[in-house]
C-alpha cells in the first residue's frame, strides 16, 4: 500500500493555509502532497523528495536572486508538489523570475501571510494525511477480512466476484485464461472477452500483475490479470474506467485477483486429479481392458458419463508426431471441451487429446462438423500449431469402443502421413488406409521404381508426362484425358507412347495400371 496523500488544492483549504495565495503555477494545483518539509539551508535539493510541499522564508537565499530564479525548476524536476513562501521578512516580495519559472513548470508557488506558522501548517497537513492513511488501513483490513472469509469458508469465484462488486460498487466478471466468462455479479450479457483484450491483460505490461484499461462489450473497464508464477490463469474485471476508481478500489481488485488465483490453483488441482483418474478409466475402456459391464456402469454413474448414446472415438494431436508438451495437450483438451459440447467425454493422453463423441442422430457426417469446430477452437488457442484429427466409426455398445479407438488411431496416422492438420475419418480413408501401414522408405522405393523415369524426364524437358499419366489412369480413356488436360487427342496419344518408351508397356495391363495409380498417389502425397 502506498503512503496516503492529499491534493495541494485540498491542503490550501485547511485552516492554517486558508489565507495563502497561489501566485503562479496554478496548473499544478492537483499535485499530490505526501510530505511537508522546511527549507533551512541553501543546498536543499539533496534533502527533498517527490510529492513534498516545501515551506520557506527564503532566508537561506535572501541575497542570491539568481539561485532563487533556478530553485523552482530544480524543485519541479525533483517532483515536489509545490513551494510555499513567507516573503515579507527577507524578500519583501517574490521575485518575478520565480513566478515566471513557476508558471512555465506548472509548479504551484504559494505566498503565505506573515502570521503563518510552519508548525501549524505541518501539523494540519500531516494530520489529514495520517487520517487518510488510517482510513485506508481500515479499508484494507476490511478488504482482507472479506476475502479471507471467502477462502476459509470454501467460497469460489462467484463469491469473490460478488464481494468485489460490493466493495467497489461496480459490476464485476471473472474470465479464464482464454477469455471465457466463468462468473460475475449481476446480469451478464458477455460470454467471452476478445483475444485483443486478453492479450492486453497478459502482455508485457501485465507481467507484474498490473491492471490495464480495456473495453469490454463497448464499455470502459479495468482488467486485473490473475497470474500464478508468471502463468496466466485468467482475469478479473470491474466494468468501470480506472480513472473513476479510487486507490482502495484498485487495491481491492488486485487482492481479489490474488484470492481468485488461489482458488483457481486449488480448483485446478482438484479437477486435474479427477481428470487423471477419469483418463485412466477411459483408457481401460478404449483399450479393451475393461469388459465388465457392471464396473463400467458404476464408473459412468460416478463420473456422469452418458454411455447410452452411440459414440465414436476422436483423437487430436497438435504439431508434429511428438504431439507437443503437457501445456499444449492441456490446451488442446480444453479446446475439445469447448468445441465438442457437454455431451462429449474428453480426456488427456501423453501427446494427444481424446474424446468420446456422440454425433447427432448417430450421423457419421456430424463427426466432421465436430472435428471442424475443434480445429477452429484449437487454432484460436494454438495458432502456430496444426492440429491433426482422426475419428473412428460410431459404436452403439460402449464395450465396442476399443474398435473405434483402433480406427481413430489409424485415421490419425493417415492424416499425419498425408500432411499436418488433416481431419480423417476411418470410413473415408480409402487407399491411404493401406499405405499408412507401409514404411516411408518402402513407399519411396515403390514410387521410384514405377514412375521416377517420368519425373526425371519432366524435370529435364519441362514436359507433362506425369500429369498425362495421371489423367489417363483416372479415366482409362485417351479422349477423356485430353479433355481434362485441355489438349488435342493426338497430343495425349503421343505422350502415352513416350511414357511407354520410358517405363514399358502398361496400356493393356490392368495390374500395371493399378500399380501406376498407387505410385502417382504416393507421389502426390510427397513420398
Task: Write up what this structure looks like.
The chain is of the alpha+beta class. It folds into four domains: 122 residues, Udp-n-acetylmuramoylalanyl-d-glutamate--2,6- Diaminopimelate Ligase, Chain: A, domain 1; 114 residues, GAF domain (Beta-Lactamase); 148 residues, 2-Layer Sandwich (Alpha-Beta Plaits); 85 residues. 49% of the residues lie in helices and 15% in strands. It is built from 17 helices and 17 strands. A hairpin with a 2-residue loop joins β11 and β12. The longest helix has 41 residues. The mean pLDDT is 88.
Into which percent range does the helicity of residues fall?
A: 40-55%
SS element count, helices: 17
Mean pLDDT: 88
Number of strands: 17
Beta percentage is: 5-15%
The span between the termini is 65 Å
Spans of at least 5 consecutive residues whose pLDDT stays below 50 are none
Strand order of the largest sheet: 2-7-6-5-4
Tell me the major beta sheet: 5 strands, mixed
| Spatial extent as radius of gyration | 38 Å
Query: Structural class given helices, strands, pairing?
Result: alpha+beta
CATH class of the largest domain reads: Alpha Beta
Domain count: the total is: 4
Query: Globular, elongated, flat, extended or rod-shaped: what is the shape?
Result: elongated
CATH topology of the largest domain: Alpha-Beta Plaits
The CATH level-2 architecture of the largest domain is identified as: 2-Layer Sandwich
Amino acid at each position: 500500500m502506498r503512503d496516503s496523500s492529499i491534493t495541494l488544492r485540498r491542503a490550501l483549504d485547511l485552516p492554517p493555509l486558508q489565507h495563502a495565495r497561489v501566485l503562479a503555477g496554478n496548473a499544478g494545483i492537483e499535485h499530490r502532497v505526501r510530505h511537508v518539509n522546511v527549507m533551512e539551508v541553501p543546498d536543499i535539493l539533496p534533502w527533498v523528495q517527490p510529492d513534498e510541499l516545501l515551506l520557506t522564508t527564503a532566508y537561506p537565499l535572501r541575497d542570491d536572486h539568481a539561485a532563487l530564479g533556478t530553485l523552482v525548476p530544480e524543485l519541479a524536476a525533483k517532483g515536489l508538489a509545490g513551494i510555499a513562501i513567507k516573503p515579507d521578512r527577507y524578500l519583501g516580495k517574490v521575485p518575478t523570475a520565480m513566478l515566471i519559472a513557476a508558471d512555465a513548470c506548472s509548479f504551484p508557488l504559494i505566498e503565505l501571510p506573515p502570521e503563518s506558522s510552519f508548525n501549524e501548517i505541518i501539523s494540519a497537513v500531516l494530520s489529514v494525511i495520517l487520517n487518510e492513511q488510517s482510513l485506508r488501513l481500515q479499508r484494507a483490513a476490511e478488504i482482507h477480512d472479506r476475502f479471507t472469509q471467502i477462502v476459509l469458508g470454501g467460497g469460489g469465484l462467484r463469491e469473490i466476484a460478488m464481494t468485489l462488486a460490493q466493495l467497489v460498487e461496480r459490476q464485476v466478471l471473472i474470465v479464464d485464461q482464454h477469455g471465457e466468462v466463468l462468473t460475475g455479479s449481476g446480469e451478464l450479457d458477455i460470454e467471452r472477452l476478445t483475444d485483443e483484450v486478453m492479450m492486453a491483460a497478459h502482455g508485457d505490461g501485465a507481467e507484474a500483475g498490473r491492471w490495464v484499461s480495456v473495453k469490454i462489450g463497448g464499455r470502459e473497464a479495468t482488467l486485473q490479470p490473475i497470474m500464478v508464477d508468471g502463468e496466466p490463469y485468467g482475469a478479473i474485471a470491474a466494468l468501470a474506467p480506472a480513472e473513476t476508481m479510487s486507490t482502495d478500489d484498485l487495491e481491492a481488485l488486485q487482492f481479489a485477483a490474488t484470492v481468485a488465483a488461489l482458488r483457481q490453483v486449488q480448483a485446478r488441482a482438484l479437477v486435474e486429479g479427477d481428470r487423471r483418474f477419469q483418463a485412466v478409466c477411459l483408457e481401460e475402456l478404449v483399450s479393451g481392458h475393461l469388459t465388465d459391464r457392471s464396473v463400467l456402469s458404476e464408473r459412468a454413474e460416478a463420473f456422469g458419463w452418458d454411455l447410452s448414446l452411440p459414440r465414436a472415438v476422436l483423437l487430436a494431436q497438435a504439431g508434429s508426431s511428438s504431439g507437443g508438451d503437457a501445456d499444449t495437450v492441456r490446451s488442446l483438451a480444453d479446446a475439445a471441451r469447448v468445441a465438442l459440447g457437454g455431451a462429449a467425454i474428453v480426456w488427456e493422453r501423453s501427446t494427444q487429446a481424446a474424446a468420446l463423441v456422440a454425433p447427432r442422430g448417430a450421423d457419421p457426417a456430424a463427426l466432421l462438423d465436430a472435428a471442424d469446430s475443434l480445429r477452429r477452437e484449437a487454432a484460436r488457442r494454438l495458432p502456430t500449431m496444426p492440429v491433426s484429427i482422426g475419428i473412428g466409426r460410431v459404436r452403439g455398445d460402449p464395450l465396442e469402443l476399443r474398435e473405434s479407438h483402433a480406427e481413430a488411431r489409424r485415421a490419425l496416422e493417415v492424416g499425419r502421413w498425408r500432411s499436418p492438420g488433416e481431419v480423417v475419418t476411418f470410413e473415408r480413408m480409402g487407399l491411404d488406409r493401406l499405405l499408412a501401414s507401409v514404411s516411408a522408405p518402402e513407399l519411396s522405393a515403390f514410387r521410384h521404381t514405377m514412375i521416377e523415369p517420368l519425373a526425371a524426364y519432366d524435370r529435364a524437358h519441362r514436359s507433362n508426362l506425369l500429369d498425362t499419366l495421371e489423367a489417363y489412369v483416372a479415366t482409362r480413356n485417351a479422349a477423356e484425358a485430353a479433355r481434362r488436360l485441355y489438349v488435342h487427342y493426338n497430343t495425349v496419344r503421343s505422350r502415352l507412347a513416350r511414357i511407354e518408351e520410358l517405363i514399358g508397356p502398361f496400356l493393356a495391363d490392368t495390374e500395371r495400371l493399378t500399380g501406376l495409380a498407387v505410385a502417382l498417389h504416393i507421389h502426390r502425397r510427397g513420398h
